[in-house]
Amino acid sequence: MSSSHRTRGIRQVLIGATCLTTALVALPALAQTAPAPQTAEPEAVEEVVVTGYRKSLADATNAKRESVAFTDSVFAEDIGKFPDLNIAESLNRIPGVQLTREINGEGLNVTIRGLGTNFTKILLNGSQIAVASSGRTDSQNQNREVDLDLFPTELFTRLDVHKTPTAGMVEGGVAGVVNMRSARPFDYKGGGQLIYSLQAGKNNQADDISPRGSLIASKTWETPIGDFGLLGGVAIARTKSTTTGFESVGWSNANMTCTGCNVTGGNNFNWASTVPAGVNSNGLTPGQAIDNALLASLNPGTTLQQLSDAQLPRLGRDSWSSGERDRDSYVLSAEWRPNDQLNVYFDTLYSKGSRSFERIDMNWVVRNSNFMVPVGVKVNGEGVVTEGTFLNSQFFLEYRPYEEDVEVLNLNPGFTWRPNDWIKLDGQVNWSRSVFFREAPTVLFNTPLNSGLNVTYANGGGDYPSIKANKDLNDPSLGWVWAGGRVNVQAEKRVTQTKGAHFDLTLGDDKGANFKFGVAYDDVGRTITALDNSARWQAFTCGGGGVTPQSPVPAPVPACDGRAGSAIPQANLASYIKQGPLGFITLDKDRFFADSNYQAFLDSAPFSAAAATGAASGLIREKTTGAYVEVNGATQVLDRDLRFNLGARYYSTDQTIEGPQTVNGVLSFLSRTTNYDGLLPSFNVAWNLREDLIVRASASRTVTRPNPSAMLPGTTFSDPSAQQANQGNPNLQPYTSNNFDIGGEWYTGGAGYIGVALFRKELTGFTVNGTNTIPFSQLGVPFDQLTNLQQQAINNRGGPDAATVTVQQQVNADGVLTILGQEVTWVQPLDFLLDGAGFTANATHVEQNARGNGAPAQAVGISPWTYNVTGYYEKHGATVRLSYVWNDAQISSGPGQNGIPVATINTDARGQWDLSASYQFDNLPTQPRVSLDVINITEEAQRSPFQWDSAAYTYYQPGRQIMLGIRGKF
């Protein structure tokens, strides 16, 4: 039996078992009469889940107080009742944690203390977890990120963020470690619990309702062989969203010849060399030569040098993305406690997601063009065009729907055995498998050239430029043509798998002085397989036909021009076009895909070196053996308690990397195996200067293995015009960081405290993009293996011998990247002013500096300042919480974007308000709590500029989401 069939079988059994468990456990609870109003001491579970948000804050404060290391926690009440769509959003309120959001606003990944997502280690119940999905829209997720949108908050009881390590922790997180603790039956005392939740959400940009629901049932029994517990849970979400915005695919300038021209770099397009047909305004005559003198006269007030460096969006386009993200998640957990010395558990989690989206954009063609005439161009002090008219422009529709399916299954049995008061043995085995499949077709066709279509361009300080055509781009009969178009049928499959075993022995007082040592083995692998049948589908659809889904690829691949014999000839193209939702046309998908036999070409798609996202095909597998020793103790210094943790962890990793390479037209796979090891010492100390004042310090070394995407052999292009290429470097060394932390907290009573932490990280082995511009002919990639669009773009730049390609390759930086940061946290109940009121607030500041020789190292994707504030009131069954999270502007890429040496892609500062309000009816059956949640109250957009503030790279408006819900328990 294949592994995929085994996984499917296990998955079906688990789903059935989960549902059966939920039903069996629920029956006794449903049979009981409704509980009377509580007057007795609440049960343990009620202290976490029912008694309120203030109790969860107190639990988090106590956990921080008892920890020796720098740790923050979020407990069940805080997780389950905030308006969080998944675990990532729950983590966003912890100091030092930043969130990466999908373009629809939903949280996706987290970063900790000034380093990117791949530096954060994500654990599920203490063991490694990997998810095969490809990340945010238009990203590749080829590194070590873990998408958290498959993990619903309802199925978890605790989140821990470890900002300083202990030797017993799994290595791999230079920035920190996040552990997600799923629900277990003995979390819920009193014999049995049944908790339900239902919500209906509405995004103000979407037409439909988004329902969500969860059901968790738990039951414990006393039996002759000990206490036994069983828990089953299910959480289902159907999220509809529509996101509108603007995209540019970068910015660039024209390639001109004059003294002092083209200082910026880029030079991605040319102005027309003669006046095109159809241009008769501004005193121009078709066929008239266009030289620098004429350009100067057409653009008064702008010098030739300014015109040559004037920045325009390469493909300025309005965008529209609309669809549904579905998620079904199940948890099944069993616990057995035969006596007070032994606890055995088996945790299982299965989650699957499916995403179906239509995505369309209308592109103004600047990239690689040579046919426009600029008139009245003005630029600002940054060299960005603020206004102008561009005669003889062209647009193309890019219709690119996508379907995604992802699933993850995690099995996690373990035990804790205490044979006596001074020995404890913990053991755990873990296995997970995640599968992801994405199909991403593209259909592209153009407005005709030389048809009198002009663009009026304005970029006067708004969020993004206004690009207005003098003809109706929402008119199916405008004269759309195949010429210069293309179709693509591309897919991508990913598989990740983890397996491991961890054993820890503690000698001494489990919560006091002890000696610990342990061993661990982890095996983590990921395979990305790209599939592409575009050449055959294009030949069949618009290249004259004569092929089948499995026939040999035509050589050369015919251009997409709708010639005779095509399944969709030029004469019939207009019949497949219809008006769109955003002021420009769209495609009749069902008819077009049926008549072009899309599904057959997709089903027959052969292997490809790179996917539609730019992700490279390849395999990485890492087998790591680790061992550690750790001493925990307490002593008195100046008559005050001092707790400490001291240890060291040794690891050894065998790494195998495999990637495709084509030489002389023959596809082969290059494999490389390496081994590296290291010793990771750690020290944490907490000193109680007073009963309410704790001072902490920590010193440690941490490691994160190199990014797999930067190590795969072979060459991939990151843009359709073959202007930028990436080459792997299998010789990259791991990142290592020496970390120093100092801080403390003043505990003001109850859940209240004021905390300060200062941290310093010194990273070596940090990678940067090494950039080199070479002729295409020196790249070692056969020209005839490029796509038609890439071949055409290279020919427009002078052919394979003259056209240059910017090649990027990750290299280890010679210097040291130092990250300095400060965190301030204040949790304060305000009962002395208003009983039940209070607030939490935290702020984090991060700065980074590079020293030493070589290219400057720089961490990207980090906001120098972040803060979040939550005000709350909770009394008499009513709860109201208003929260605000703010992230400063950040650099999101390395330099050298689009061939401009200084250009980086950045992200604007952004703040988001969220509201959660609810009321619990204690006297009704199940004590229902009715809730109102509002996410992104002020409809804050996501905006990224390209180097200059006035050059919008992307702009997305996710809208506001309102959710009404009810939850209760039996």
In words, what does this structure look like?
- It is a single chain.
- The chain is mainly beta.
- It has a 22-stranded antiparallel beta barrel. A five-stranded mixed beta sheet has the order 1-6-7-4-5.
- Helix 2 crosses helix 3.
- It is found in: Cell outer membrane.
- Residues 715-735 have a biased composition (Polar residues).
Give the low-pLDDT segments. 1-50
Mean pLDDT metric: 89
CATH superfamily: TonB-dependent receptor, beta-barrel domain
End-to-end Cα distance: 43 Å
- What do we call the CATH topology? Maltoporin, Chain A
Judged by helices, strands and strand pairing, the structural class is mainly beta
The percentage helix is 10-25%
| The level-1 CATH class | Mainly Beta
Proportion of strand residues: over 45%
Alpha carbon gyration radius: 30 Å
Assign an overall shape.
Answer: globular
* Domain unit count: 1
Tally of alpha and pi helices: 12
Looking at the overall shape, the CATH architecture is: Beta Barrel
Organism: Caulobacter sp. 602-2
Subcellular location: Cell outer membrane
Biased composition (Polar residues): 715-735
Pfam families: Plug, TonB_dep_Rec_b-barrel
Helix and strand topology:
Blueprint: H1 3-31, H2 44-50, H3 53-66, E1 71-75, H4 76-81, H5 87-91, E2 97-101, E3 107-112, E4 120-124, E5 127-128, E6 156-162, E7 176-182, E8 192-203, E9 209-223, E10 226-247, E11 251-252, H6 292-298, H7 304-308, E12 312-313, E13 315-339, E14 342-365, E15 373-379, E16 385-391, E17 395-399, E18 402-420, E19 423-439, E20 442-446, E21 455-458, E22 466-469, E23 481-488, E24 490-508, E25 514-532, H8 534-542, H9 570-573, E26 577-578, E27 586-587, H10 589-595, H11 598-603, E28 607-608, E29 618-637, E30 640-663, E31 666-690, E32 693-704, E33 715-717, E34 724-727, E35 735-749, E36 752-764, E37 767-775, H12 788-796, E38 804-812, E39 816-829, E40 837-851, E41 865-875, E42 878-887, E43 890-891, E44 906-907, E45 910-920, E46 929-935, E47 942-945, E48 952-957, E49 961-969
Parallel strand pairs: 4-7, 34-38
Antiparallel strand pairs: 1-6, 2-3, 4-5, 6-7, 8-9, 8-49, 9-10, 10-13, 10-48, 11-12, 13-14, 14-17, 14-18, 15-16, 16-21, 17-20, 18-19, 19-24, 20-23, 21-22, 24-25, 25-28, 25-29, 26-27, 29-30, 30-31, 31-32, 32-35, 33-34, 35-36, 36-39, 37-38, 39-40, 40-41, 41-42, 42-45, 43-44, 45-46, 46-49, 47-48
Helix pairs in contact: 2-3
Domain TonB-dependent receptor plug: 64-177
Signal peptide: 1-31
Domain TonB-dependent receptor-like beta-barrel: 456-937
